[in-house]
């Protein structure tokens, strides 16, 4: 009996949603391979996407935004490779509120078990999107949304509805969109700060108003997606978590359009360092973060800034003598966390004009040259007289110690 099967599927889906809501655990959804790749110059080949997907699975993300199959044959090929390469995460495909897009998502994820495949439907709902992009009234938008979701239920159990430009949409209409989407069959509703304009206080306020204003919200999960145009992506995500979001969608290294998306690794680390405020990201293996950041930088060709949190070359390096002395005595004196927590590079004491004699002596000892304090101080004085931009190589350092 088709009606009975449908009723049973709905009941099971509701129980799964209820379980996730009660668990209180934040789930990470990665969109590096879709939204991140939209960054100019960050194009990835299908096999490269599959390689990153495997690393994301090892990290422990709950879901991967695998691509936009209606956009290009390359996306379809990548999704199929990812589908074959990973088994644990839920794979979702992006789709407009069009039957053809939903069909393309269904075909791209063919063969994947039902609970591990999903579709993410999007359309712009703010006044500027309704008027200039869709040229539709609010009632026409609601019909378009519900028709697409109802059609998607014939092919997917996992259906996310993400209204573009949520942060610039009238609250009453936004809540109405969510209510109708959930009634039509959406299992997740997304809040998108598409142009990255929010602050943490406004983020918290809007998400609380959504939870108060959507009467059937207990039947869906709440996901958040922030861009970083004001440099507040991480802060806004953390405010969203405090406001009750169940899913955070980010990218590795924060890559994405304009100023990028929110960096997944930074959100995870902030949670790990402040579990009393945000809960611990205990579904993730944080030691995989550093290598994953490097892999994404390597394959996209987008370099990691030297002062980038967690993955930048300077995060575990210092040239300042006072800091070097402290790190030699106990790394925790000048580090918020140890490199091994995130799979980072070892602590590096850079020798230069601001260094101290203890750092010089320590490096020489590593090279097999034991020196007195006076000798280390003499070498340090020579280092400080080097022209700007000079590199203190190991060979040069040992030679100076012998003189």
Automatic annotation (TrEMBL):
Alphabetized InterPro entries for the sequence: 2-IPM_HCS-like (IPR050073), AIPM/Hcit_synth_CS (IPR002034), Aldolase_TIM (IPR013785), LeuA/HCS_post-cat (IPR054691), PYR_CT (IPR000891)
EC number annotated for this UniProt entry: 2.3.3.13
Keywords on record: Acyltransferase, Amino-acid biosynthesis, Branched-chain amino acid biosynthesis, Leucine biosynthesis, Manganese, Transferase
Family statement drawn from the similarity comment of this UniProt entry: Belongs to the alpha-IPM synthase/homocitrate synthase family. LeuA type 1 subfamily.
Annotated Pyruvate carboxyltransferase domain residues: 26-290
Superkingdom of this protein's organism: Bacteria
Pfam families linked: HCS_D2, HMGL-like
Ion transport as UniProt keyword: no
Organism: Caulifigura coniformis
GO biological process assignments: L-leucine biosynthetic process
An MF annotation (GO) of this entry: 2-isopropylmalate synthase activity
UniProt protein name: 2-isopropylmalate synthase
Pathway: Amino-acid biosynthesis; L-leucine biosynthesis; L-leucine from 3-methyl-2-oxobutanoate: step 1/4
């Amino acid at each position: 009996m088709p009606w009975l099967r449908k009723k049973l599927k709905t009941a099971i889906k509701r129980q799964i949603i209820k379980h996730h809501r009660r668990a209180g655990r934040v789930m990470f959804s990665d969109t590096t391979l879709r939204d991140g790749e939209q960054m100019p110059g960050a194009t990835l080949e299908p096999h490269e996407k599959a390689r990153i997907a495997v690393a994301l699975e090892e990290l422990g993300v709950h879901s991967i935004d695998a691509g936009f199959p209606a956009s290009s044959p390359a996306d379809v090929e990548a999704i199929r490779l990812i589908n074959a390469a990973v088994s644990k995460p839920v794979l979702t495909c992006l789709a407009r509120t069009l039957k053809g897009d939903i069909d393309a998502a269904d075909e791209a994820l063919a063969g994947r078990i039902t609970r591990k495949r999903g579709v993410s439907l999007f359309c712009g709902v703010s006044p500027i999107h309704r008027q200039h992009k869709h040229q539709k009234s609010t009632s026409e938008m609601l019909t378009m949304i519900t028709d697409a979701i109802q059609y998607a239920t014939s092919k997917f159990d996992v259906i996310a509805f993400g209204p573009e430009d949520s942060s610039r949409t009238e609250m009453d209409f936004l809540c109405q969109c969510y209510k109708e989407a959930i009634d039509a069959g959406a299992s997740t509703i997304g809040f998108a700060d598409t142009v990255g304009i929010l602050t943490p206080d406004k983020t918290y306020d809007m998400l609380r108003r959504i939870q108060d204003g959507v009467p059937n919200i207990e039947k869906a999960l709440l996901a958040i997606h922030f861009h970083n145009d004001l440099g507040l992506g991480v802060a806004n995500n953390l405010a969203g978590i405090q406001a009750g979001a169940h899913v955070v969608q980010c990218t590795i290294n924060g890559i994405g359009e304009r100023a990028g998306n929110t960096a997944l690794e930074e959100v995870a680390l902030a949670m790990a360092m402040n579990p009393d405020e945000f809960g611990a990201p205990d579904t993730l293996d944080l030691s995989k973060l550093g290598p994953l950041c490097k892999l994404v930088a390597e394959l996209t060709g987008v370099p990691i800034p030297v002062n980038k949190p967690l993955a930048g070359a300077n995060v575990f390096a210092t040239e300042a003598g006072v800091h070097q002395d402290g790190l030699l005595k106990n790394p925790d004196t000048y580090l918020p966390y140890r490199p091994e927590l995130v799979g980072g590079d070892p602590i590096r004491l850079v020798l230069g004009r601001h260094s101290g004699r203890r750092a010089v002596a320590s490096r020489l000892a590593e090279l097999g040259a034991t020196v007195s304090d006076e000798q280390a101080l003499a070498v340090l004085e020579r280092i400080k007289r080097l022209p700007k931009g000079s590199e203190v190589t190991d060979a040069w350092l040992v030679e100076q110690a012998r003189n």
